[in-house]
Amino acid sequence: MKYNVINVGTHVNPPGDMYERYFPEDLRHLAPRLVKRTFDDDGEYEAIELEGHYIRQLSAQVGLDRTDYMNIPFIRSFEEGVPGQRDPAARLADMDRDGIDADVLVHPGYPILLPKNRDTRRGMMMAFNDWLAEFCAHDPKRLIGIGEIPVWDVPRAVEEARRVKAIGLRGVLMPAIPGYVGAWSCPADEPYTSPVYDPLWDALEELGLVIVVHADAAAATKALQDYDEPAINMIINKTMPQEMIASLIVRHVFRDHPDLKLVCVETGVGWMAHLVSWMDVLVGEHPSMYPGMNEKPSEIFRKHVFGSFLWDTIGIANRHVIGTGNIMWCSDYPHNYGPFPNSKKQIEKDLGTLDDEERRMILAGNAVRVFGLEDDPR
Length: 378
Prior knowledge:
Elements: E1 6-12, H1 18-22, E2 33-39, E3 43-50, E4 53-55, E5 57-58, E6 74-75, H2 88-98, E7 102-108, H3 118-136, E8 143-148, H4 154-166, E9 171-173, H5 198-207, E10 210-214, H6 230-236, H7 242-250, H8 253-256, E11 262-265, H9 270-285, H10 297-304, E12 305-309, H11 313-317, H12 319-322, E13 327-329, H13 343-351, H14 356-370
Parallel strand pairs: 1-7, 7-8, 8-9, 9-10, 10-11, 11-12, 12-13
Antiparallel strand pairs: 2-3, 3-4, 5-6
C-alpha cells in the first residue's frame, strides 16, 4: 500500500441495532435496544433505548438534505445519510472519491451513550469493538480502527486492550479528563498521574496500541461536562488533552514507556505550540518541581504526542515549534461541516505553502509511523 493521504480523525455510525446484535452473551440482558418512539415535538423517530432514555441519531452528516442541521438536530432513522458511515465498501468508494488512502476510525458520530451501569457501558464498548473490527477487516490496510476500553477498571481495560489487538484494531480511545462521567467521556476514578494505570501503560506499549483522545473531551467543570452548554464546550474541548499530556510527561509515563504514543484526534494542534513552550519554561525555571526530568518536555512531547487538525492556520504557522513530525490531517467524515468530497481543495488551501517533505509528513508519513502501517516507498 502506498499512502499519500491518511485521514486521522473520521467516524462511523453503526446500525441502530448494533448493540443487540454484538453485545457479549453474558451481558446481553443489558443491551440497549433499537425502538421507534413518538417525540412530542415532531413525530416518530428511531431511537436507542438506554436506562429509560431515548437517544436519536444526530443530523450532522454528509448526504442529508439539511442546510442548518443545528435547527433540525435529529434524523428519523439510523439508516439516513451516506452508506459509508456503516458499510465498508461504500466507505472505500467515498475515500477514493475524496483522494483518501486510509481512514483512522474512532467512535460513532452520534453522542456517546453513557449508562450509569458500568457493566452496560463495558458491554457497549465490547459490542462496538467487535462491529468495528468486522468493518475494518474489509480492508485492514485502509480502514484503521480505534477500539474502546473500560478505563475505570484497569484489569478489565487491560483485558479488553488485549482483545482489541487480537481482533485487528490499532489503538484505544481514552478520555482526556478521566475523573468525570460526561457525555463524551468514560467514567474513571483516578487522575492519570496515579500508579493505578501502570499496568495499562505496560500493556498498551507491549501490544503496540496507540492511545487516542478525541476532540469532544468533557469539560473539567461538572456543570459543563454533559454538554448542557454546547456552545462553551465546542470552544474549549480542543485544548482539554493538555491535562493528560502534562500528566503523562510529569509522571514519567513516557520516559518509562519509550514506545508509547498518544494521538489527539481532531483537536487541532495550534494550542500545542504554547503547551510545549510553556512546559520547557516551567521546567527550566522551577526544576525542583519536576524531579527526574532528564529531557525537556518539548523533546518528550515530540517523541510521543501527536495531533490531527481540521482547519488550523495557527498550528501550521507554528509547526516548527510543535514539531512537523507531530502533526496529522483529518476531515471529520461523515460530519457535513468537513471538506468531503473536496478534501483535495482544502488540503491545498491549508498546506499549499509547505514544501513537499512537510506535506508528505503531515498528510501520511507521520500516521504511517505512529500507527505502524506498511508503506510502499515506490
